[in-house]
Amino acid sequence: MNEQSVFRIESRRFENYMQFFKIGAMISAIVVTMYLILKLAVFDGQVEYINLAGYAFAFSMYYEYKRKAKAWGGQFIEATGRVLSFKTRKNEQTTIRLDTITNIGIKLDQIILQTTELGEHTIVLEDFTEYKDRMMIKNKFAELKKQLNIS
C-alpha cells in the first residue's frame, strides 16, 4: 500500500452528547447536595426519600454517560501499511489485514468489506457527518480497491 492510501479519519459526533451526560450528572449531584445541606434535614435524620431521588437521577445520568462513552466514543477508520482498522457505533474495534480483502462495496452510507478470514464487515458511515470526511473515506476505499485489483 503506498503513502497516498495511509489515512485516519475520526468521528467526534457524540463527544458533545457524552459531555452533556457528564456535566448533567455533576450538576444534579451538586444541586441535590446543596438542597439537602441547606434544608438541614440531613442532620435531623428526617430526609425524605423523594429528595434522594435526585441522587438516583445524578447516578443514572453518570451511568448513561459511561455506557455511551464506551460504546460510541473513539470512532475512527484507519489504514496503515497492510492493515485496516475501524471502530464505529455499530462495530467494535476491528482490524483486517488488507491481503484478506476480496471485495469492497462502496454504498451511500456504508462500506461493505468481504474478507477471506473474517467474512463480511459493514462500516456504517452515518456518524461521519462532515461531507468532506465521507467523500475522503469513499475515495480512499476506491483507491484501495484499485490497489488490491478488485473489480
Describe this structure in a few short sentences:
This protein is an alpha+beta fold.
Provide the succession of SSEs. EHHHEEEEEEH
Amount of beta strand = 25-35%
Got a strand count? 7
Structural class: alpha+beta
How large is the radius of gyration? 23 Å
Instruction: Kindly report the average pLDDT value.
Output: 81
- Largest sheet, if any? 4 strands, antiparallel
Lateral arrangement of strands in the main beta sheet: 1-2-3-4
Distance between the termini: 17 Å
Instruction: Report the total helices.
Output: 4
As a percent range, the share of helical residues equals 40-55%
Uncertain runs are none
Shape: elongated
List keywords for this structure.
151 residues; alpha+beta; 4-stranded antiparallel β-sheet; 3-stranded antiparallel β-sheet; 7 strands; elongated
